[in-house]
């Protein structure tokens, strides 16, 4: 009798163990799917930020072929095409992304950037105008500033540059763009101050160094600013200042700066040598 009573208990215990095993297998399966999804997301981020641009394009093209309905794969392909210098090729892909029900306002910002890179300013402006004003990001306002600049809407441009700077921890590039905007307006002192701000945040930003030299030359200041620079950079900046001086009619100053640039460069500075020879030839001919 006792044995008969044990049978239901044994079968009951076996059923519980079986159920636990099934539940455990399901949990493991879900966990593995979650890990795979995280791994895929991490791989996509690596491809978008650190991988060679051409390699990233190849990776996302394969991902789109394997899963044509994946918005993340198409988004990655469009962004990697822009990184690889293929802004025009990215635009049809961005349009596919925008047709997807899970597209975002940030996708539209990225599409606007691609349109700008492809010199489609009106379309880029329309894309940004379609985004609600509540979508306030550094990426958006940086593009808004560039479009305002292109439209010569200076007050709007200044507002957008200032707003963008407040939304990033790495504002060097924005300060440089804002400075170039001021330089193009003939506001040379304000431009020089903005380039100095850019270099405070990123002392390696050579475009800001070049632009600062141009701003100083526009004010007839032909000495290099007190900024961090290598010997090669010093020679290149002297060459830039020399060309700016010559274009302003300060030929003798430009000639002296070219000689200094050639002497400063640690190697043969062919571009400066050619400029000096052409200048000396013009002087003799004159």
TrEMBL record:
PROSITE patterns: PROKAR_LIPOPROTEIN (PS51257), TPR (PS50005). Keywords: TPR repeat. The keyword Transmembrane helix does not apply. Coiled coil: none annotated. Pfam families: TPR_16. The keyword Transport does not apply. TPR repeats lie at residues 172-205. It comes from the Bacteria. This is Flp pilus assembly protein TadD. It comes from Rhabdonatronobacter sediminivivens.
